[in-house]
Structure prediction request, 274 residues.
Amino acid sequence: HGMKPIHHVFHVNRWLEQRGHLRFRRRSAQRVRGLARLDSHMALRYRWYPGLYDRLVPFGAAPATANRTMRDLDRWHTDAYAYGTGGPIYLGEATGRRGDAAFRDRLIDELRREPSPVDGQPAFTVLAGDDVHHGRFSDKAPDILITANDPRIMVDSSRRAWPSAWVRHEHLDPSQNYGYSGHHGPIGIIAAAGPSVAHERIEGAGIVDLAPTMLALLGVEAETELDGRPLAAFSPALDPVGTTASAGAVADQTVYSSDEERAISERLEALGYE
Prediction:
C-alpha cells in the first residue's frame, strides 16, 4: 500500500449518530473491574438491559470515550454503525435493518452527496457491499463501503464523542486519531527479489493479486476461487511445500484455548486494534 498525509478526518459513526441512525448507551459498567464482561454480555444479548441499567444505576459510569469495542453501542436502537479500518458500515442486526435494501440505498445516496472540505465536491465513492464482495463469506462483508475521493481524507470508524463528523487533522496527539500523521493510500508498490522473480516491470497489479501469487509460488492450489490472479512476473515454486489437504489439516488444529484467545484479543484492543 502507499501512504498519504491526513488533512481531514470523516468520523462515520458521528455522522450516523447526528442523523439518528446510531445510539450509544448512556451508561455502562465497562470501566468497572469485574463487571465489564457481564455488562458486555447483557448489553449485546438482551434488549431490555441497557434501559434497565440506566434506571437502576442513574449515576453509573458513562461509556469510555476511547472505547473501540461494540459494547457501548445500543445495538437495539442502532440502524447502522461503522466498524473496522476505513469506516465500513454494517446495518443494524437487532433493529432488522440488515437486509433492508431501501434503507441501505438511502444511506449510500446521502454519503455520496456529502461535500468534501477540500473542494466542496462529493467527498466519497460509496458502494453497496454486495457489489464488491462475492463468494461464500460475502454475508460477513460490510453493507456499505466508503472510499475518499481525495486520499488526504481519512475515513474513520472510532466511537468517540467527536465535536462533529468532519474534523480538521491538526494535532499529532494520541487523543487525536491515535497520533497518526498519515494513512494508507490507494496507490502502492510491489517489490521482490529471488530466483522465482522475473526482471521486469510489474504494472496493473492490485492487492487482490498477492494471495494467489503467493499460493502459486508455494505450489498450493486455492481452495476457493479468488478475486485476483497470479502475477506473470513470478514463477511457481519448483518444490511445492504443501497441498490443499495438508493446509486444511493444519487449519483445523486448535492453537489457543478460549481463555488464551480472549486474553490475546484484549491485549490487541488495548494496543488499538479492533
